[in-house]
Amino acid sequence: MRFLILGFIIGLSGKSLAEPIQLDNTNCTICELLVDAIGLSLDNNTVDGCVELVVLIVCEALKIEDERVCKGIVSEFGSEAIYILKALIKEDPRNLCGFLPIGCGYKFDPKGFRWPLVMPGLKPQHEDVPSPPKNQTLKVLHLSDLHIDNHYLPGSEANCSEPQCCRSNNTNVEKAGVQIPAAYWGTIGNCDLPYWTAEDMLQQITKTHTDIDYVVVSGDLESHAVWTYNTTDHAYMIQNVSGLLRKYFPNTKVYFALGNHEGVPIDNIAPHWVPQGNLSYQLYNVMANAWDDWVPDDQLAVVKYRGCYMVKLYPGLRLISFNTLYGDPEN
Ligand SMILES: *[C@@H]1O[C@H](CO)[C@@H](O)[C@H](O)[C@H]1NC(C)=O
Ligand SMILES: *[C@@H]1O[C@H](CO)[C@@H](O)[C@H](O)[C@H]1NC(C)=O
Ligand SMILES: *[C@@H]1O[C@H](CO)[C@@H](O)[C@H](O)[C@H]1NC(C)=O
Ligand SMILES: *[C@@H]1O[C@H](CO)[C@@H](O)[C@H](O)[C@H]1NC(C)=O
Ligand SMILES: *[C@@H]1O[C@H](CO)[C@@H](O)[C@H](O)[C@H]1NC(C)=O
Ligand SMILES: *[C@@H]1O[C@H](CO)[C@@H](O)[C@H](O)[C@H]1NC(C)=O
Ligand SMILES: *[C@@H]1O[C@H](CO)[C@@H](O)[C@H](O)[C@H]1NC(C)=O
Ligand SMILES: *[C@@H]1O[C@H](CO)[C@@H](O)[C@H](O)[C@H]1NC(C)=O
Ligand SMILES: *[C@@H]1O[C@H](CO)[C@@H](O)[C@H](O)[C@H]1NC(C)=O
């Protein structure tokens, strides 16, 4: 430990005296030395006890973005990030430096985090099947990325200083008062869709298209205010949008799929083999309940287990609703 701290100091001064400092490399070196100095590698119990502390120390030492990143990692990503960090650090303490956004040259590729997928054997031989009759046409309504913002407020700041605007609490830091007021039906810019615009759209669609065979909703119901995501809000949105579609399509089947914004936190759905608790994805049951008259009975258990399902729509045509987070590189 003492040797490492000494090495740390020598490393720092040696670096700054010898050659022109390349910030990126230096950040990473400092981080690695800190990790060594803190002694994370000593035993696993140290890791369990002080991950949050270490993240904050490293963040502060390197002055990463006014604590927002540190706070973001520790609060919004919460127990999920802590779980991942612990496992990363146990494998190699320096993984912590690859995890933090400080420009380390190497990309960490933790072996413990591979998501094993058992492939069901080789592709079957191709067989010619008779083509379906050519003149059968279906009319399908495809809705995607609704991104409804339940906090949309007409008259609020549309050119705000936050990532997501047109919301009750937005301000424009430069000037007092609202510079560009959010319009009633929606505003082009960093704003999402008001609920009433989505409802009005469905009203128009059902008036002008009375012969829709089925509806596909391919995910991303939520607003882009990703730092506020929580399971309660997401559950509300799943029930809310499902209810809205049921209201306008009482006799038409609606098939949902998950988008990356259905993750809590965004892009995150844990595989079902990780420890239970806060890491398990709690919204599959909500989805199964909200969609239960649209998803076949024998598929509801699949929805509850991994958020996907299959429906035989017509002879020769089946719909497969993927859990798209399985293919999300940010997951
Ligand atoms: C820490 O735990 C891992 C398994 O999680 C184990 O492989 C490793 O040997 C442990 N290290 C020490 C120092 O106990
Ligand atoms: C680590 O924790 C386990 C259980 O919490 C305990 O049995 C073990 O003695 C601890 N090891 C050290 C080195 O403190
Ligand atoms: C390295 O750290 C400095 C100061 O902490 C910071 O300004 C810079 O952006 C960091 N470099 C990278 C690539 O993140
Ligand atoms: C094509 O459509 C016509 C009119 O709807 C129908 O009478 C006919 O049976 C259809 N042909 C096939 C091959 O399905
Ligand atoms: C939006 O706000 C920024 C900063 O307050 C300002 O520089 C920019 O001109 C504004 N854009 C418009 C279209 O008013
Ligand atoms: C956001 O606005 C609401 C009322 O619209 C207010 O009660 C609340 O204090 C505001 N929050 C912040 C952080 O400004
Ligand atoms: C979820 O986030 C919303 C703001 O989007 C907040 O009002 C609510 O209290 C949060 N719920 C929980 C359980 O954290
Ligand atoms: C969806 O939520 C909005 C806003 O909270 C509410 O006004 C609306 O009645 C809800 N719709 C359904 C179908 O639950
Ligand atoms: C889940 O998180 C909450 C609050 O963040 C915490 O109180 C609770 O102990 C956690 N549960 C598990 C099983 O980790």
TrEMBL record:
Q: Name one Pfam family in it.
A: Metallophos
Q: Which GO terms describe its cellular component?
A: extracellular space; lysosome; membrane
Q: Where is the Saposin B-type domain?
A: 24-108
Task: Give one GO biological process term.
Answer: ceramide biosynthetic process
Q: What's in the keyword line of the UniProt record?
A: Disulfide bond, Glycoprotein, Glycosidase, Hydrolase, Signal
Does the record's keyword annotation contain Glycoprotein?
Answer: yes
Report the catalytic activity. Answer: a sphingomyelin + H2O = phosphocholine + an N-acylsphing-4-enine + H(+)
Coiled coil segments of this chain: none
Molecular function (GO) terms listed? acid sphingomyelin phosphodiesterase activity; hydrolase activity, acting on glycosyl bonds
SMART domains with a match to the protein in the record: SapB
Gene3D superfamilies per the UniProt record, alphabetical: 3.60.21.10, Saposin-like
Question: For this UniProt entry, which residues form the secretion signal?
Answer: 1-18
Q: What is this protein called?
A: Saposin B-type domain-containing protein
Per the UniProt record, the lineage of the source organism begins with:
Eukaryota, Metazoa, Ecdysozoa, Nematoda, Chromadorea
